[in-house]
């Protein structure tokens, strides 16, 4: 839903902009579960 409402304003067509925004948001959210085990490990 966020990608549909907030997408960059570039010269590409609407579908490309929404797809690009979805990928960026998905990548940002997918990093969060990986941070928890890294915080719990002691080096």
TrEMBL record:
<dbReference type="GO" id="GO:0016192">
    <property type="term" value="P:vesicle-mediated transport"/>
</dbReference>
<keyword id="KW-0653">Protein transport</keyword>
<dbReference type="GO" id="GO:0006621">
    <property type="term" value="P:protein retention in ER lumen"/>
</dbReference>
<protein>
    <submittedName>
        <fullName>(wild Malaysian banana) hypothetical protein</fullName>
    </submittedName>
</protein>
<dbReference type="InterPro" id="IPR000133">
    <property type="entry name" value="ER_ret_rcpt"/>
</dbReference>
<keyword id="KW-0931">ER-Golgi transport</keyword>
<dbReference type="Pfam" id="PF00810">
    <property type="entry name" value="ER_lumen_recept"/>
</dbReference>
<keyword id="KW-0256">Endoplasmic reticulum</keyword>
<comment type="similarity">
    <text>Belongs to the ERD2 family.</text>
</comment>
<dbReference type="GO" id="GO:0015031">
    <property type="term" value="P:protein transport"/>
</dbReference>
<keyword id="KW-0675">Receptor</keyword>
<keyword id="KW-1133">Transmembrane helix</keyword>
<keyword id="KW-0472">Membrane</keyword>
<keyword id="KW-0813">Transport</keyword>
<dbReference type="GO" id="GO:0005789">
    <property type="term" value="C:endoplasmic reticulum membrane"/>
</dbReference>
<dbReference type="GO" id="GO:0046923">
    <property type="term" value="F:ER retention sequence binding"/>
</dbReference>
<keyword id="KW-0812">Transmembrane</keyword>
């Amino acid at each position: 839903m966020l990608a549909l409402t907030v997408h960059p304003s570039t010269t590409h067509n609407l579908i490309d902009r929404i797809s690009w925004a979805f990928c960026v948001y998905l990548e940002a959210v997918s990093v969060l579960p990986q941070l928890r085990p890294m915080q719990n490990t002691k080096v």
